[in-house]
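Ops channel
N.P.: pipeline sanity check, posting one input/output pair.
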């Protein structure tokens, strides 16, 4: 069982930065691949980024590539999403999620592949 709690959201101007954190409980955190998804008002939840359990394999949605960076610290049971050059279209509730599905290359953007989800943190980017 893994419990996930996101933090770090807030209001930021376009061009600014935020760092989201996702703290996980459970001693098996390091065995899970972790993903970030987001859901904007009136839209479906979409994939943002994913990182393999060891951190060596990372994926990004095209919309955030070059601006967002995912990382994890297994010693702290935490995964991060550094978001730079934020745009108004990045406004959404951001969720972290954990999966044991493998290979991550096949499942990284499939919400149904993720077993555990956090409650989400709001990110609002003003123009």
């Amino acid at each position: 069982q893994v419990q996930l709690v996101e933090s770090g959201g807030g209001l930021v101007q376009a061009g600014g930065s935020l760092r989201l954190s996702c703290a996980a409980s459970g001693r098996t955190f390091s065995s899970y691949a972790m993903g970030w998804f987001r859901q904007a008002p009136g839209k479906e939840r979409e994939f943002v980024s994913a990182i393999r359990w060891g951190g060596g394999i990372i994926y990004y949605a095209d919309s955030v590539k070059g601006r967002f960076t995912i990382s994890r610290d297994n010693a702290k049971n935490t995964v991060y999403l550094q978001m730079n050059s934020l745009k108004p279209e990045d406004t959404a509730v951001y969720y972290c999620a954990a999966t044991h599905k493998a290979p991550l290359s096949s499942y990284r953007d499939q919400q149904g592949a993720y077993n555990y989800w956090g409650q989400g943190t709001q990110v609002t980017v003003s123009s």
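N.P.: looks fine end to end. Residues 104-107 form the longest helix (4 residues).
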